[in-house]
Amino acid sequence: MEVKTSLLDNMIGVGDMVLLEPLTEDSFLENLKKRFDHNEIYTYIGSVVISLNPYRSLPIYTPDKVEEYRNRNFYELSPHIYALADEAYRSLRDQDKDQCILITGESGAGKTEASKLVMSYVAAVCGKGQEVNKVKEQLLQSNPVLEAFGNAKTVRNDNSSRFGKYMDIEFDFKGDPLGGVISNYLLEKSRVVKQPRGERNFHIFYQLLSGAPDDTLKKLKLERDFSKYNYLSLDSATVSGLDDAANFRTVRNAMQIVGFMEDEMQSVLELVAAVLKLGNIEFKPESRCNGMDESRIKDKNDLKEMCELLGTEQSVLERAFSYRTVEAKMEKVSTTLNVAQAYYARDALAKNLYSRLFSWLVTRINESIKAQAKTRHKVMGVLDIYGFEIFEDNSFEQFIINYCNEKLQQIFIELTLREEQEEYIREGIEWTNIEYFNNAVICDLIENNQNGILAMLDEECLRPGTVTDETFLDKLNTICADHQHFESRLSKNSKFLNDHSLPHNCFRIQHYAGKVLYRVEGFVDKNNDLLYRDLSQAMYKANHSLIKQLFPEGNPAKVNLKRPPTAGFQFKASVGTLMSNLQSKNPNYIRCIKPNDKKASHVFNGSLVCHQARYLGLMENVRVRRAGYAFRQAYEPCLERYKMLCKNTWPHWKGRARQGVEVLMTDLQVPAEEFSYCRSKIFIRNPRTLFFLEEKRKQCLEDLATLIQKIYKGWKCRSHFLLLKKSQVVVASWYRRYAQQKKYQKIKHATTMVQSYTRGWQARKLLRELKYQKKCEEAVTTIAAFWHGTQVRREYRKFFRANAGKKIYNFTIQRIMQKYFLGLKSKLPSMSPIDKTWPARPYSFLDGVHAELRRIFHLWRCKKYRSRFTEEKKAVYEEKLEASELFKDKKALYPSSVRQPFKGDYLEISKNPKYQKLSSAVDEKILLADVVNKINRANGKGSSRLFLLTKKNVVLADQKTGQLKANVPLTDLASVSTSTQTDGFFALKLKEGSASAVKGDFLLSSDHLIEIITKLHRIGSMAADREKLNIDISDEFLVQFKQDKVCVKFIQGSPKNGNSVSCKRKNNRLLEVSVPASS
Predict the structure, then answer these.
(1) Is 696 annotated as a binding residue?
(2) Which residues form a coiled coil (predicted)?
């Protein structure tokens, strides 16, 4: 059985303030302090959760805690924010009710952390799956991105939200998240250009400078030193407990998870860097000849770098900082800006640039996390908005923030009372209205369309003439002087004339959270929120991918002369939409309280907590909850909790739960006026009644515990006795069995011994008889064999003696040959024709056979080797064989040509476009094409020629031009002469009287001499109508040059001549060829 705990079990103080007795402000604070000191930071007021900021990490948000609160009733466990999140999620999933979670409190009370805890819990308990997990991760990772760009360190909070955020998380019918939509409200953009003392700018500026890699900073033209930038305050640049470098990496990773592309992230960082550069632009005054003051930029380097980041022209932006163009109907008037106006324009551009970038980020995140399905969604809204703010210097931003908190307080009061009233009506209980402070009068003072402060501020901003903050204050003093929540020194109300705590340029509003003094300076400018059209148009002209989207009004083609709505008007409309959205959902409240102003753990400032409890209306909330009935519970859990108090309901009640509760309350004699039976719940009027039931239950549990102990001890003793008895019976039975087994084994052993001796005696007797019978049979067989042998030898002795020698010889020879062939089979050499190994012969009389077998085997493997040749390869080997017959042991050049394949066409005549004309002139197939040197008789030098060989002709052509020089038919060739040396000289001798012999023989030199002569000889051998070509190999031969015969003589060259062959003319009858000595 599962053990369940309740908030009433092991309570520290009172977990639900409704049960506090007696209910006073002191007891309320004392209960909060007692629980806070024991790390119990959550307390209930009915269904409202009070959360105190511990300013440290507590081990109460683990995955085990999530599982502990999952699918549990709200009051079943001790107070926790997870209980409220689970109740809201299960109401949305199971009852199909849209939910909203309203998190309110002062700045620094822990609202942002509370919203994160709610979202993380919902993400942990909803469904699983790849797509669902992706949606959950994107929803959770949107927080670090928005915190980096929208949060900042203030005097009250190191991670203060400087914007309002409302996220609608959308679920399907199963309760799995589909996506979400984020709405942002009033980013405090004035913080971009100026921060109060002790505070700093938005986190992203410090994270970028601390955590970005050096190459990224170099691209953004930034340095890590914070002091280089005017927009960054230095007194709080570093915050204890915040690692800006690590947070920057977290933000980059979160943007990737949400779905930002790499170029989008780079564009965002470029705009952040541009804002920093914008703050460094400074102006100096300059007078014109007409007496008008104008401004000029002091140092243009920061302007240049900013323009490079934004992709805009420097001259365009520089002019926008110096001039302002005003358009009215068809007229344009351009005026110069003085230094103050230039600084205003610079700061306005910085604020607008950052504010619009933040709005674009929210829109871009919404595109990634929005639900894709078109079906109806269940929605859970989480509101994390800035808390009520009271600073030393309160301006327009604080006024707007506190107005929003007034609206939230109003909706809290209305929805709380309405929910209470609806439950009483639903359960059939009469309801009496409870008096409470309604702050609607304060909301009306601010938002009334005619006489409200926002309406008068808009009217002042839009009216013609001179408009200043003082004229706005004068209007307030005139119209709001009689309002009970408005105070001003200059109003008609005389009681404030001598109030020195109220300066002349300020007004004071008595909010629900206390009086707040507002300095009127800057109200008009901040409400106007003007950005000069020149700057908008300069931004629109930028080549940056993001800037055009942020400044669409800068498009010259879409100039709108209509004045844009004021900041106050826009915020009022946004708050109205938000209130309508919240009222359409079932509310769940988390009231955040900060225990001290020092952001220190374990410090509880009673007066500060008391002030927050008062203006949050917590005491009124408890009184409203207790006005009717302090405690209510469904019949089933009530009967389950208290059924042990009555014998009729214990241990099991078989009837309806309500009947069981009625029997229980009657048996306990609880007065009828202390409780009421309703449709589905029992309502208990006084906490004392509940405490009486709890005390009775505690006593009964102690009695039951004693009874359970008694029964358990009796059961344990009986079980032990029965176990001993059973053990004794088992031991006795085992011993008797063991004794009988031992006795049986002894008898069995004795019987086995007698049997074995008897069988042994019988076996030995039989063995002796068998041995005797076997000996007799063997004797008879031996005698018969000897007798038969004697008879056979007598009969065949004469034949054996005549033929024994010849048979033994034949048998011996046969065995020797058999052994020889088997041995030869196992020792055969490889199938390579060049393998000359052969097994040694075993006997000398096998010499002839051994040699013949070697010859046959060699011929056979040669045949096998040749059978694998293709026709082309066979032709190559035949040429190689013919070359061997011609030159082997005759010419020293031959060995080096053996390994070189005969390629034939070395020039690829048919493929070379240079020789296309020559190729077309030769009709026959070209068998060999090579470059040779034709030796000149006059000086012995050579000139390059193309040598082409076909089946009928030898063709010589010019190498450069391809022009035909000679065409000699093979029938005109008489012989070919070459030397025995390693040179490549050869002479083509022509037949006397032939047509080709007019110019004489040809003396040529080639690197492929062996191949050329072999192919010439082979063509002559294959032609039937032609004589075989004569090959003359000699170191001295005659060559016919026209009319003269010249002797060509080959000699060995000396080492000083080098390794090259040289040909020199000695005289008219002698050419001497010097050939290097072969190594």
Answers:
(1) no
(2) none
